[in-house]
């Protein structure tokens, strides 16, 4: 897996430090609010499990499976909800956890949906932010690492569903794209 990488962009160490920093910020902001933390499947799975364990407050967890990339490099522009929440968000402080914000379409869609459903507050925490990819106006409230405009894999991010279980984030060598 790691041998398929042209370079490592975010190391395990940097992920660990980033998670710890975000965990502290989130703890300070969410203590006493019993937030509902939403993991956006599948990409956010590892980041969510790590970041909630860095939060020293009561949280409830739920999952939403959303996809817009399918197996390609480019966002289809259509955000599909493959699995919805179990929890009623009405009156809740909701924290959406994402692996990456690229065009911003996935998040914009989710934030609007959850506000429409009556959430008391909706905030977003993302491990990676790719501002150069933005197509819609959408910024996360908590950002881990700002990344350049490259196709990234690892720590949840996939290429054709693979590489998600790599413990760091990297760029694949061109020869593996075929
Ligand atoms: C990826 C990524 C984010 C979203 C970001 O998910 O995990 O959820 O795209 O892109 P955007 O800002 O352009 O919307 P994907 O659709 O690939 O589904 P996955 O998480 O199951 O891989
Ligand atoms: Mn995703
Ligand atoms: Mg994907």
UniProtKB/TrEMBL annotation:
Q: Which ranges carry the Phosphoribosyltransferase domain?
A: 13-159
CDD domains associated with the record: PRTases_typeI
What does the UniProt entry say about where the protein is found? Cytoplasm
**Which GO terms fall under molecular function for this chain's record?**
guanine phosphoribosyltransferase activity; hypoxanthine phosphoribosyltransferase activity; magnesium ion binding; nucleotide binding
Q: Which reaction does it catalyse?
A: GMP + diphosphate = guanine + 5-phospho-alpha-D-ribose 1-diphosphate; IMP + diphosphate = hypoxanthine + 5-phospho-alpha-D-ribose 1-diphosphate
Q: Which GO terms describe its cellular component?
A: cytosol
Q: Which residues form the signal peptide?
A: none
Which coenzyme or cofactor does it need?
Answer: Mg(2+)
Regions annotated as coiled coil: none
One GO biological process term is: guanine salvage
**Keywords, sorted A to Z:** Cytoplasm, Glycosyltransferase, Magnesium, Metal-binding, Nucleotide-binding, Purine salvage, Transferase
Q: What is its EC number?
A: 2.4.2.8
**The family this protein is said to belong to:** Belongs to the purine/pyrimidine phosphoribosyltransferase family.
Give the protein name, as stated in the record: Hypoxanthine phosphoribosyltransferase
UniProt source species:
Granulicatella balaenopterae
Q: What is the lineage of its organism?
A: Bacteria, Bacillati, Bacillota, Bacilli, Lactobacillales
